[in-house]
Every structure is written in structure tokens, then in C-alpha cells.
Amino acid sequence: MKSALPLFALLLSGALHASGPATVDEALAQAKKAHQPVLIDFSAPWCYSCYFMATHVLNGKEWDALHRRAVIAEIDADSPDGNAWMKKLAVKALPAYVVLNEDGAELGRILAEQPREKFYPNLDSILAGASTLDDLKRKAATGSTEAIAGVLGSYQARGEGQAGLDWYAGLPPKVRDAAAKDPSITLWRDRLELARADKADDDAAVVEAAQRVLAGEIGCDRPYVVDQLLEAGEKLPKERRHAVLAPQKKPLDALLSQQVFVAKPSCADQRSSVIAAADLDKALGDTAAETAVLNRAVDDTRARLGDDLKKDRNAADNLRVYLARAGRNAELDALYPKLIAAYPDDYVYPYRYGKSLLDHDQPAQALPLLEQAAEKAYGVNRLAVATLRVKALKALHRQADAEQVVADVLEQNGRWFPEQVDKLKEALKS
Description:
Blueprint: H1 24-34, E1 38-43, H2 48-56, H3 60-69, E2 71-76, H4 80-88, E3 96-100, E4 106-111, H5 116-129, H6 133-141, H7 145-157, H8 161-169, H9 173-179, H10 183-199, H11 203-214, H12 222-232, H13 238-245, H14 249-260, H15 270-283, H16 287-305, H17 313-326, H18 329-342, H19 348-359, H20 363-376, H21 379-395, H22 399-413, H23 418-429
Helix pairs in contact: 2-17, 6-7, 7-8, 7-10, 8-10, 10-11, 11-12, 12-15, 14-15, 15-16, 15-17, 16-17, 17-18, 18-19, 19-20, 19-21, 20-21, 21-22, 21-23, 22-23
Pfam family, one: Thioredoxin_7
Protein name: Thioredoxin family protein
Signal peptide: 1-18
């Protein structure tokens, strides 16, 4: 499968980097004056993959050179502007890097953690091609296999499976018949079918499509598709589910050993690989293997961090997740105060620790942490923190205080994030 395509999209979904245009519209205005493309870097304080990218990829000579080739807009997904543009561009997960031309037409996107050895060549291909989706569609209609793959990849990256399949079905019959002989096109069509079935909540179709996709060469996307297969197959009869899942263990274990737990990982998202492997082992009833992969991840992460949680925030947050997934609660409770001390300037860890305590029916212990988080929260995360504060206050029979929290936050929030506002109001009523 070729990756040097102008619109090729790699799937998987407070600004973390230097200052630049504050909004996407400002970036587009700057780009129009300079006749340059715009790279939108969507990130958020809770996005562990974003910290990996900030620390390991979005720096050095390649990143410096990129600033001379494009206008870079580092957009907080929790801000009103970021939230609106994510919806407009159908960005479903972070981190996401979307390239627009100066007129706002999309040229391509890269999703999820990527090692720099993959990120910059693929970004170079997008910038060098400078072809919009409409350009690629015109080339595809003439029979260009690369253009067809580029269009299908673009639809798949957006999760628009049905639209992508409909577009492919509308190609001239001779072009479609020739393309069907290309294995890479077949794989893209399977992935679009998987996206279509997933969006339609058609579990049976997800199971069938995921198995076809997993039989192909999908590289570092394997854990994400295994997750889809696990979820869609939950209601299958036990023997049938085991038969569907068992063939996935060997390739996923190989990915961990050869591409994740190595000195220079080619799959950057260690967390997704580890959790998918643990979940797969659990579903297969292999408790020993489940424990072993989580212990391996904990040991590997601790070895890389040493005693310095500030060394790598991505790794530090992975440690939190591995301990939680392994049920090592005493170690997790000891880790949380250290994470709060290591990263005192945002709301994330007081919020997470408070949520953990609240989930374990300790509202009195959770409330001070949630109040600490509230002092630093903003945008959509202000509403998330407030929702937990309301739950803690209600558990402590402090209804009037809960009502005041809601009133204050709604006054601060204005008209933004209506879905989260509804959840906050519901928490007050429940």
C-alpha cells in the first residue's frame, strides 16, 4: 500500500505548544496573505497522545522547517473554536493534524500518535501534493489507483463509510472493475464497510468486516480494529466469540513484541496496543496473559520514567492507566498525588483523582480535589468538572451548594457546549 498520496489519511482520534494564531479563522486569514497552507494541530490537556507528539515529534529541525512552509494553528479542542472546528472537519479523536489550503479546503490529515519517521514524510506528501479531495476524485475517475486509494482513505479517516462506498460505487464501471483487482483498494473498501457498520451499530457486520480488515496489513492500526471486534462481538455465543477472537492474539502479541516494546517503537501508541491486548486476553479467558501484558507495560514505563514523572507526561499518564486497568489500586492512589505535584498547572489530575474517589464512594475526599480542578478548568472541561462537583455535593446532601455550582458555571459558560450543559443539569436533578 502506497502512502505518498496528497490526501492520504492515517487512521487510527490550553495549547500544548508555542503560541501562534489563536483561532482557525485567524490562521486562514494569515495563510491567504502568505499563500501558504494551514496545519491545524488539535490537542487538549487530557490527551495523552498529544503529549507524546509534543515531546517526541513536534520539535527539532523538521518542526522548525514546517513553520516556514505552513501557518500552524495549535487549537485546543476544549475551546469553543476548537470544538466547533472539530465538528466541522469531522475530527473524532485526538491528536489530529488537518491540512487546509489557503481557501479552507482540506488537503489531508494525519490522526493518532505517529513516530517522527512516519509523521514528517506523510506530512511532506500532503503538502507537496496540494490536491483537494475534489482534485483526487477527478483523477480517480480516469483510473488512477493512487487517487482512488487517496479518496477512500480520506472517507475512512472521517468515519464516513457509507459515503465512501457510495462514491466508489459511482465510479465508471471499467475503472471500478480494474480497481477491484488491487489489494490495497480492497482493504480500503473493507475498512469503509467497517466504518459504515460501526456507525450503524450493526454488530454482526462489524464482526465480519473487522475480521477481513485484520487479515490485511494494517500495521499500527491493528489495536483499534481489535477493539472494534471485541466490542461488537460481546453478545456472540461463547464458542463463536472465542473462534472469532482467538486468531487475533498471535498478530497482536507480535505487534507488541516487534513494534511497541522495542528501543525505537514503530507504533507510537503503546497504550492502545497494551489495553487491546489485555482486553483480548480477558475475553479469551487467559487471565495469566492479561496480567502479564499489564505488568510488562507497568515495568517498562517505570523503567523509562525512573523517579521523574516530569520526564515524559505521555508515559506518566500511561502508567496511571495501566495501574487502573490492572486493578493495582493502592499503587494508583499513591501515584495520583505525585502526578498532581508533577503537573500542577492544569485541572487534569485533580479531576481524575477526584473522579476515581467518587467512583469508589468517597465524595468527601473527592470534593476538595474537584474544587482544585475547578480553579484551573475552562471551556468544555469546566462543565465536566462541575458535573462531578455536583455529584459529590449531592452525595454529601449539600443540594444548595450543588445548585450554586451549576448557576455559577452556566453563567461562565455562556451558550457554548449544549450537550455538556444538559449533562450538568441532569446531574443536578438525579
